[in-house]
Structures are given as structure tokens and as C-alpha cells.
Write a structure and sequence with these properties.
423 residues; 2 domains; flat
């Protein structure tokens, strides 16, 4: 028992004894002396109690940090022991899950409904050190998905934040109206009008489910476990990651897809400006100025830029007259190279005579991410026992539920008709 707890119990006993003695109308000499002794002891215990609390606070803080670190490492270690081959064999042969794989699946089932076997997103990471087939690329490092979306994800590099949601919907209240300022124009005048504090809710809802179909042949099922582990992880990681990364920007909002931030920017309150000129630093500089004027960014190096490789190629070849400095060099002098993201998946390919394309600018304002991506529960892996029955193979469908929203449209700006050709 903690010292502070022992002292607290003793103080409680003293108070009870004092209360009994205080109710005596004519206390004897011994009872009076007893009250004095208890009062003195209570004061001493009070000082000891405060000292114990101060000492134990430091111990609690140290223990808290240790527990938090231990909890994270233990969780990562537990997820590292999740075996996808057990899931494949359970679907194919009805084999029972065992060990930590069974524990994780049981925990996920208790938090939500799954038709098949739930697989945590962390289990799809590529793990270093596994024995894999000779014709497969060897993963060099562990790349987690949750909290960073997917490795190499354009959305993650543009500042999108992934939210793991067990069930239900999640909303972020965003301030739309609040405090006002004003000067007192006269000695007896008011300082200005008032405005009610208002918020608007930005919701993530589990209305969009992505399906990924996989075919695992009988040969693959009979191969070594590590090879199957790497193959399943790599295929699911690539398929789910690439499509989720695309819909964050280009999702149609129809046919089951979430609405991407660049499909109809006005829906999210995002400003869209037509450049209608060849790509150069002046066009992007004007957009940065608009960002800064709207208090979304404090400096050019706080802005992140999403472009197509064609924009880079055009700007890098456009030299300033009489110099060896290109428009791309001018951009890099103001926006760090680490803040510029190139993608062929998140932006549509340029078509037409002038090969126009779009670009997106984002910034992290006040610790709030420009884009939120909600991912519900775990990947639901469902067995199809009929499609490949003749060949002895296994076909599975993986279902992942996600949604996209923007908290503040002022943290994004879309540029259209950025031309990458002169004719």
C-alpha cells in the first residue's frame, strides 16, 4: 500500500476518535489529554501526507512514462506476431487460429461485426527479415500504415491525418464565428458589437467500403509460411494503399466512393483558381500569397504542394533568359523540396493541346491537419469457396471502410489549368 494511502487511513481514524471525544459533555482529564495527543498526531500526519503525495507524484510520472512506452512497444510486438498465413489456412482448411493471432482476432470481433476474419491494418505492414521467394523484392524496413496512411502515400506527405475509428461516426467541431474586436470610439461608447460563438461539424461516416479481391493458388498455400506472409502483405498493401491514396484527392463521391478534395472543391469550401498559363513560379507564388493573406500559412515554407511530374519537367526546362536558373530552381528557393509532392495517382493525367493539369496546396494551421481520413475497424477478410474450387485455390475478398473530410477549407487551395506545354 502507498504511504499516502496509509497516512490517509490513519487520519480518518483520528478524525473518528476526535469526533467521539468531542461529543462528551464533561471530558475527564485523561480524555482531554487524549484529544490533545490525537490533535498533535493529526497535524503531524497531515504534513507527512503532503510530503508523501509530492514524492509519489514524481514516482507516478516516471511510472506513467514507462507504462506508456511499454504499452506502445508491447502493442507493436503483438501486431508483429500476427500471422496472415494462419488466416489463409483458416479460410482454406478450417484450421483453428492460435497464439496472438487468435487473441487479436477475438478482440477485433468483440468491437465490431465481421462476416469473415478481421485483420488489423498494422498486420499489412511489410516486415523486415522475413524469408521470401527469390523473385520477390526484400522489404528493407517496417512501414506502418495507421497514423501515416500508407508508405509513400501522397496524402500522408500532403499532411493528411489518418484516424482509426472502432465504430460509429466521428465529428470535429470547427469554429465558424466567435470573438470580435473593436475600439471605443467615444468616452461613453461601446467597444463594438458582439457575435455568438458558433461551430460547424465536419463528420466522417462509414458509408464507403473498398473491396479488394485476391486469389491464392494451391501452390502458394503449400509454400513456406514466410513467403505467403510477404506476398499477402505486399499485394493487399499495394492495392488498398494505392486506391485509398487516389480517392483522397479524386474520389467521385458516387458509386460508393468518398468525395475527394479535388473533385468538387467548393463542397469542402476550398478555393479553386484557374491559372490558364504555363507552369511557372509566379503562378504558384500568387497562390502562396493568397494563402498567407488568408492567415492559413505564415511563410512559404509552411506550404505543401501536390503536382504532376509533367509540371516539374516543364518548369525545370524553362530557363530564365540569360541565366542557367530555371523556374523550378526559383520555386525550390522558396518552397522546400520536401514540401513538394509529385504523384501520378492523385492527379489526373494532362490531356489536350496545352496539356493542362491541376495542383493542390495545403498547410497545417494551428496543429490541425488539412485532410482527415477515417479508417474503420480492421480489414474484413471473407472466403469465397466456390470460384476457384476446381483448381484447389482460395479466393478472398478484403473489405476496408473509409471516408474523407476537410476541417477547414481555407487550409487548401486548388490550382486548375496549369499548362505543361506551349502548344
Amino acid at each position: 500500500m502507498l504511504t499516502s494511502k496509509k497516512l490517509e487511513l490513519r487520519r480518518s481514524e483520528i478524525r473518528q476518535n476526535l469526533a467521539e471525544l468531542a461529543n462528551i459533555e464533561t471530558p475527564s482529564e485523561d480524555e482531554t489529554r487524549k484529544m490533545g495527543e490525537l490533535d498533535t498526531e493529526y497535524r503531524a500526519k497531515e504534513a507527512q501526507y503532503r510530503a508523501a503525495l509530492i514524492s509519489e507524484d514524481e514516482q507516478r510520472d516516471a511510472a506513467k512514462n514507462e507504462l506508456e512506452t511499454r504499452s506502445g512497444s508491447e502493442w507493436a510486438e503483438m501486431m508483429g506476431n500476427f500471422e496472415l498465413r494462419q488466416v489463409a489456412l483458416a479460410l482454406d482448411e478450417g484450421a483453428a487460429l492460435s497464439g496472438q493471432t487468435a487473441e487479436i482476432v477475438q478482440e477485433l470481433r468483440s468491437q465490431g461485426g465481421y462476416r469473415g476474419i478481421p485483420i488489423p491494418y498494422q498486420a499489412l505492414e511489410q516486415r523486415a527479415g522475413e524469408t521470401i521467394a527469390g523473385d520477390n523484392a526484400d522489404p528493407m524496413q517496417t512501414r506502418p500504415i495507421i497514423e501515416r496512411l500508407f508508405p509513400g502515400s501522397a496524402a500522408a506527405r500532403m499532411g493528411a491525418q489518418s484516424i482509426s475509428i472502432p465504430h460509429g461516426s466521428v465529428e470535429w467541431p470547427v469554429t465558424t464565428d466567435g470573438a470580435t474586436v473593436g475600439w471605443q470610439s467615444t468616452e461613453t461608447g461601446n467597444v463594438g458589437g458582439t457575435s455568438a460563438y458558433k461551430t460547424a461539424d465536419k463528420a466522417l461516416s462509414p458509408d464507403n467500403t473498398l473491396g479488394v479481391q485476391m486469389k491464392i493458388t494451391r501452390k502458394a498455400l503449400k509454400q513456406s509460411g514466410a513467403a505467403l506472409e510477404a506476398a499477402v502483405r505486399r499485394d493487399m498493401n499495394s492495392a488498398i494503399g494505392a486506391e485509398m491514396d487516389r480517392v483522397v484527392f479524386l474520389g467521385s463521391g458516387a458509386s460508393g466512393q468518398p468525395l475527394g478534395v479535388m473533385t468538387t472543391p467548393a463542397t469542402y469550401g476550398i478555393t479553386s483558381t484557374a491559372v490558364t498559363a504555363t507552369a511557372d513560379w509566379a503562378a504558384f507564388r500568387a497562390a502562396v500569397v493568397r494563402f498567407m493573406a488568408g492567415n492559413a500559412a505564415g511563410s512559404p515554407d509552411a506550404v505543401k504542394l501536390l503536382i504532376r511530374p509533367e509540371v516539374w519537367a516543364w518548369m525545370d526546362s524553362a530557363l530564365i533568359s540569360g541565366t542557367a536558373v530555371s523556374e523550378w530552381d526559383r520555386m525550390l528557393a522558396n518552397i522546400p523540396a520536401g514540401n513538394i509532392v509529385m504523384t501520378t495517382n492523385g492527379l489526373a493525367a494532362p490531356t489536350g493541346a496545352m496539356k493542362p493539369t491541376n495542383a493542390l496546396m495545403t498547410t497545417n494551421a494551428g496543429g490541425v491537419s488539412p485532410i482527415f481520413v477515417g479508417m474503420w475497424g480492421a480489414v474484413d477478410l471473407i472466403r469465397d469457396p466456390f470460384s476457384d474450387a476446381q483448381s484447389g485455390g482460395l479466393r478472398v475478398t478484403a473489405l476496408a471502410t473509409m471516408d474523407v473530410t476537410v476541417a477547414r477549407g481555407s487550409q487548401l487551395e486548388m490550382l486548375t489549368a496549369v499548362q505543361t506545354a506551349s502548344s
